[in-house]
Specification:
Layout lengths: L10 H22 L22 H21 L2 H9 L2 H12 L2 H4 L8 E2 H4 L7 H12 L5 E4 L2 E3 L13 H5 L13 H16 L2 H6 L14 H4 L5 H7 L4 H13 L8 H4 L11 E5 L5 H9 L4 E6 L4 H11 L3 H4 L2 E5 L13 E5 L7 H14 L5 E9 L10 H4 L18 H13 L4 E2 H10 L2 E7 L5 E8 L3
Parallel strand pairs: 4-5, 4-7, 5-6, 7-8, 8-9
Antiparallel strand pairs: 1-3, 2-3, 8-11, 10-11
Helix pairs in contact: 1-2, 4-7, 4-9, 9-13, 9-20
The structure holds S-adenosylmethionine.
InterPro entries: COMT-like, COMT_C, COMT_dimerisation, SAM-dependent_MTases_sf, WH-like_DNA-bd_sf, WH_DNA-bd_sf
Pfam families: Dimerisation (PF08100), Methyltransf_2 (PF00891)
GO molecular function: O-methyltransferase activity; protein dimerization activity
């Protein structure tokens, strides 16, 4: 039978070429630092900062993932593809089961030989047979590995579920305290797979209901159905009896430090250009997660974190662990302050809002920005850290705002957004939890113009948080 070679011009041929070329770049980067090639089976601590993390290699990783996913969508039968997508929530459910059964912690010491599920199940209330089924589902997605029947071990993708705490102590700890003192990653995954998923389950009904379909009121979000959040998601978190949700949420924000996947916040925003003692107000700053990164890298700034008073105790605990000298020295101040009220700190060098505005639709976002604009002096900067949403199709840099966004050329036939999904998943989560939204550059431009702010500069890479540096404008 005659063989037919793959046409290099076809989508299929171009995807194969991208996969080969980018995999070679990645392999060479590992060779150059004397590391074995990456494997999903590797359960040792991930390599953090070496040549494999450099920009060129990261671009190759992004390209490889995008091309592999597109190739799968090209060859997999459409109905099974749609079924698998429709059932993806089961992975979310399984991740929460594994985290709350402390599986990654139980497996930490046993390495590649793994542990029988009967022993893993001792750290929770879960029936071992049921737990094995959940772990097998995850292992089929390369999260944990099944090394022999019913024996599981950690691998590269299960390591982020490990809080670093001792499984035995953990199993006896009050669940309200589970994520305190951790890096917050597990708390972030639980926020996604509990509160956000419950809202997602009610999204279709909420979007179709004539009473809520066109509303941007947070009280009309899917959270009203999914979480019984009659007073909106913030009301839900602050409700008596929901302390565990509130603590998990705030630790999830600590975990969200890694959302950026890079150190853009500390290295590209330009904090070093502000003179010693310049005041930076971190509005809706949570316990102060982002401020802790900024003050570590740029201790010459005077940081003021503002958030809801209900967070004060958790904030003090956070700083006592993270940077014990920060509050007593006055380098960092934590203030209870409602961001809809007049801003008490006038003429600060910087007003910083990170992942605040995506919780709110435009009219409420403007009610947050108005007091900020009112407090600005002519020299103040407003720095906003948020996702910058791309269209999935090509767009032209046909106006001033779009020209501020630098984007690398996208190889054919990949999607314009390189298939990076994080921002769209976050957008859907914001819709479900708050009736909020992630925004495109045109939407940012329009919103900030209405708030009398002008975008001077944007830094960030596709799929990561971008930082918009804005000046007050008289327009
Ligand atoms: C998505 S979190 C972002 C936290 C922090 N900026 C970060 O990036 O880690 C949004 C924050 O807005 C705060 N928030 C909500 N409503 C508020 C209000 N009315 N006044 C002040 N802060 C509020 C929440 O408590 C929460 O800490």
């Amino acid at each position: 039978m005659a063989t037919r070679s793959t046409s290099p011009q076809s989508d299929f041929g171009q995807l194969l070429h991208l996969i080969n070329a980018s995999a070679n770049v990645i392999g060479e980067a590992y060779d150059a630092v004397g590391c074995p090639h990456p494997s999903s089976n590797d359960g040792s601590t991930p390599i953090s900062s070496d040549k494999t993390q450099q920009a060129g290699t990261q671009q190759a990783v992004i390209t490889l993932i995008a091309a592999c996913r597109q190739l799968i969508a090209s060859v997999m039968a459409p109905v099974p593809y749609a079924i698998e997508t429709s059932m993806s929530f089961q992975y979310s459910a399984a991740i929460r089961v594994a985290i709350e059964a402390h599986v990654a912690e139980a497996l930490r010491e046993v390495g590649d030989q793994g542990m029988h599920v009967n022993d893993i199940a001792k750290y929770s209330n879960i029936n071992p047979d049921k737990l094995a089924r959940i772990l097998r589902l995850l292992a089929t997605r390369h999260i944990f590995k099944e090394v022999s029947p019913n024996v599981f071990a950690n691998n590269r993708m299960s390591l982020p579920l490990d809080t670093g705490k001792d499984a035995e102590i953990f199993a006896k700890t009050d669940p309200n305290e589970w994520y305190e003192g951790t890096n917050g990653h597990a708390a972030y995954f639980v926020l996604c797979t509990d509160n956000a998923m419950k809202c997602g389950a009610h999204l279709a009904d909420t979007l179709q209901d004539p009473k809520t379909a066109n509303s941007y009121d947070p009280l009309d979000a899917a959270a009203a159905r999914g979480l019984n959040a009659e007073n909106g998601y913030w009301g839900f978190l602050n409700q008596e009896g929901h302390e565990r949700h509130l603590k998990t949420y705030n630790m999830a924000m600590v975990g969200s430090k890694s959302l950026a996947y890079d150190d853009t916040l500390c290295t590209r925003v330009g904090w070093e250009h502000f003179p010693r003692g310049s005041v930076c107000v971190d509005i809706g700053g949570g316990v102060g997660t982002q401020t802790s990164l900024i003050t570590k890298a740029h201790p010459h700034l005077k940081m003021i974190v503002q958030d809801q008073g209900v967070l004060q105790k958790q904030a003090e605990e956070y700083w006592a662990i993270t940077d014990v000298d920060a509050l007593p020295s006055g380098r960092v101040t934590w203030q209870a302050q409602d961001f809809f009220e007049p801003q008490p700190v006038k003429g600060a060098a910087v007003y910083f809002l990170r992942c605040v505005l995506h919780d709110w639709a435009d009219e409420d976002a403007l009610r947050i920005l108005q007091p900020v604009r009112d407090a600005c002096s002519a020299d103040s900067k407003v720095i906003i850290g948020e996702m910058l949403m791309s269209f999935a199709c090509p767009t032209s840099p046909d106006d001033e705002a779009r020209r501020l966004v630098r984007r690398p050329a996208i190889p054919q036939p990949l999607l314009n957004n390189m298939g990076i999904r994080g921002g769209y998943l976050s957008d859907a989560a914001m819709l479900g939890l708050h009736n909020g939204q992630e925004r495109t550059i045109d939407q940012w431009h329009a919103l900030l113009k209405r708030a009398h702010l002008k975008i001077d500069r944007i830094v960030g890479d596709e799929g990561t948080l971008h930082y918009f540096s804005c000046s007050p404008s008289e327009e």
